[in-house]
Amino acid sequence: MGVSGGEEGAWHGPSLMPGGSFEASKHTEDILLKVVAQVPDSGPCVTYIGKGGAGNFVKMVHKGIEYGDMQLISEAYDVLKSVGKLTNEELHQDDKGEGYLVDDVLDKTGLKGTGNWTFQQAAELSVAAPHYSVILGFDQVVDTVKLIHNVIQAINASKICSYAQGMNLIRARSSIKGWDLKQGEQARIWKGGCIIHDIFLDRIKKAYDRNPDLPNLLVDPGFAKEIIERQSAWRRVVSIAINSGISTTPGMSSSLAYFHAYRSPCCLLIWSKLKEIFMERVYI
């Protein structure tokens, strides 16, 4: 069973993703329904995921999406702080003690392996799921008000692509394993008890409720309209970051590349050919 929620989940209820046999899950259902996070408009954050290791696989992808969210937040902060010259007070009021907490956070990260497994599965299943970052120097003057607006648009557009990649990764493994995962239900149980819960999940559930066979969140009418409207601001932020020589915004730029590739017949043809070559090298 996949478990998400960390310290908050331990106190207030986690999101649980049970796998294994369906018969066994019925024996624990009453207990799990009581211990998980409860979301008023969508119910307890648990559902039977599928046979075998389905629950743990879904939890793994959830962790990959979480890392993607943290990456995008870091990139937005870097652009606003380094290019926009915003102060900590302008970025956010911090009441965690004297000074600003963000200034005391070490510029380093650690891994428990889950994120790497997500990327390995993405490569094995030929499902795009890009991220990561490098920090350089910078020197560019910009309109701060416009920059803030553009960064908000860029991070939201990038998140749509990040979640789309994660949901497609789950669907690909489900198809191979015969798990018959319900993607709308999967989004529902992440709405509470886990780190990534946000308004996107409710919209994702509704998108799959409208069309259970949706090939990609990018072609859902609501998400498609939103990402098209934000693409100009999205490109501006990536361009500003590159021209400034600061963080190359790998999360935002790779998500933008994913969007470009998904809508381009030429890029899709190239990706299809590369996929064939990759699969031959891995499995033959």
TrEMBL record:
Residues 55-272 form the 6-phosphogluconate dehydrogenase C-terminal domain. It is an enzyme of class 1 (oxidoreductase). The keyword Oxidoreductase applies. Signal peptide: none annotated. GO terms for molecular function: NADP binding; phosphogluconate dehydrogenase (decarboxylating) activity. Gene3D superfamilies: N-(1-d-carboxylethyl)-l-norvaline Dehydrogenase, domain 2 (1.10.1040.10), NAD(P)-binding Rossmann-like Domain (3.40.50.720). Keywords: Gluconate utilization, Oxidoreductase, Pentose shunt. Pathway: Carbohydrate degradation; pentose phosphate pathway; D-ribulose 5-phosphate from D-glucose 6-phosphate (oxidative stage): step 3/3. Its EC number is 1.1.1.44. It comes from the Eukaryota. GO terms for biological process: D-gluconate metabolic process; pentose-phosphate shunt. Belongs to the 6-phosphogluconate dehydrogenase family. This is phosphogluconate dehydrogenase (NADP(+)-dependent, decarboxylating). It comes from Populus deltoides. The lineage of its organism: Eukaryota, Viridiplantae, Streptophyta, Embryophyta, Tracheophyta.
